[in-house]
Amino acid sequence: MASLFRSGLRLARNFGTKATVLGPHSSITRYSVPLCAKYSTDVSETSSGIIQPTEQIPAVRVSPEIVRQKLVEYGNFVSECLPKFVQQVQITHTNELELLVDPEYIVQIISFLKDNVLSQFTNLSDITVVDVPTRPCRFELVYNLLSLTYNQRIRVKSYTDELTAIDSIVEIHEGANWYEREIWDMFGVFFKNHPDLRRILTDYGFDGHPFRKDFPLSGYYEVRYDDETERIVREPLEMAQEFRKFDLTSPWEAFPKYRKPAELPPPPAETEDKK
Amino acid sequence: MASKISTGLVGLAVEANPRQKLNILYNSILSVVSKIPATASYRKYTEEFANQQLKKLDTIKDDVQLEIDLGPGQFEEVIYNAKAELRLARKMISWKPWEGLVVQPPPGQWDWP
Q1: A258 falls in which pLDDT band (50, 70, 90)?
Q2: In DSSP terms, which residues pair with A166 in a beta bridge?
Q3: Comparing A13-17, A94-98, A117-121, A142-146, which segment has the lowest mean pLDDT?
Q4: Are B73 and A30 in contact (CB under 8 A)?
Q5: d(CA B83, CA B81)
Q6: Who contacts A168 (Cβ-Cβ below 8 Å, separation ≥6)?
Q7: Which residue of A has its CA nearest to B108?
Q8: Based on CB atoms within 10 Å of each CB, which residue in A81, A172, A235, B52 is the most buried?
């Protein structure tokens, strides 16, 4: 039991390692093959410096450069196969692949990522929304997927505004059910074809969508037990101290690399007198 | 492959003749994918994959070696994945993802911060 646990840990920590021995054939060990654009599931290849562990050679974590290169290859593969759906592909500095997708085609792309043999992102880790009120489509939908066979994660991002509905992916991933209910409750993003879209975290008669950036921290109503009426009453919020907003921004520039160049006025036209 | 009693995975029964099933599956993937235009990358990669797997099925006679070479996991998992790919290929014909991008994102949508 302990050896299974230890080997399970190794699988979780390393990438391209010997997985736990399954099935009655003890001579067959399952290798999680690193994600790559080539459909080469040929385990005997030591492609690009990844050494498969044996009983003599221990499993070594793959270097970040190789991981990044594999992810870039995979990202190119997806964008080549699905140019209609994928608007942009990016990779963070921590080697996380993100696909930026047209909201009309979320079901298609999640289907592709789940069914395609090279991808096999069968595990839905999370669905969330990021509220950026300055944008016209303020809600940025984020789907986090995990591939168990290839030990790889991917993020699919899309966008919507307050009024546009999004297709639900419950038919593809059952686990999306409660995540989408939470998003509906907290942000107000409606999901079409969801089997049961109702509130999940807020109180029964609650009005509003709490995780939106324009919803105040303490809310609008407070709830207390009233002795006279002997029931819970809901009253507009009364705070002992008025809300204080601290300006916690640092005096130094936060993101110097993302500085937008200031638009300078065009230089004055040279006059002929200058000769 | 009569030597296996169980796959060790809940819900996946042992396949009596995986080679035949895989042959049928990969050939049907090829026939489905031939319906999409030849310029599409998806077709190119899927055909490459299916042909590679079919070649392995033909050349490798030893069942144990084949299970290792054919792909990550046991025969039953490979069959499951092939079925999923076949389902996907059929949907791809109607979705037509090889056409170019239709909708551009709203300006400034993906800028960060």
Answers
A1: confident
A2: A191
A3: A13-17
A4: yes
A5: 5
A6: A176, A180, A191, A192, A193, A194, A197
A7: A135
A8: A81
Token look-up 């669905």 returns A127
At residue A268 the predicted structure's pLDDT band, cuts being 50, 70 and 90, is: confident
ipTM associated with this complex: 0.94
- Please say whether the beta carbons of A223 and A206 come within 8 A: no
Whether pTM exceeds 0.90: no
Cite the DSSP H helix spans in chain B.
18-33, 41-59, 63-69, 75-95
The percent of residues in chain B predicted with pLDDT above 70, rounded, is 96
Give the pLDDT band of residue A42 (cuts 50, 70, 90). very low
* Interchain pair B45, A85: CB under 8 A: no
* Both tokens assigned to B86: 């076949």
- CB distance A44 to A26 below 8 Å: no
- Name which of B87, B95, B105 is nearest A87 (Cβ-Cβ): B105
**DSSP assigned state of A260:** P
Q: Quickly list H helices, A82-224.
A: 106-115, 176-187
Q: Which residues of B touch A254 (CB under 8 A)?
A: 113
Q: CA of B58 to nearest chain A CA: how many angstroms apart?
A: 15
Q: Do A33 and B73 touch (CB under 8 A)?
A: no
Task: List, for residues A195-250, the tens digit of each pLDDT value.
Answer: 999 999 999 989 999 999 999 999 999 999 999 999 999 999 999 998 888 989 89
How far is the C-alpha of A177 from the C-alpha of A196, rounded, in Å? 8
Q: Residue A47 pLDDT > 80, yes or no?
A: no
Residues 35..94 of B with a Cβ closer than 8 Å to A: which?
Answer: 40-42, 45, 48-49, 52, 64, 67-74, 77, 81-82, 84-85, 87-88, 91-92
CA distance to A79, A100, A115, A202, per residue, from A89 (Å): 7, 6, 20, 35
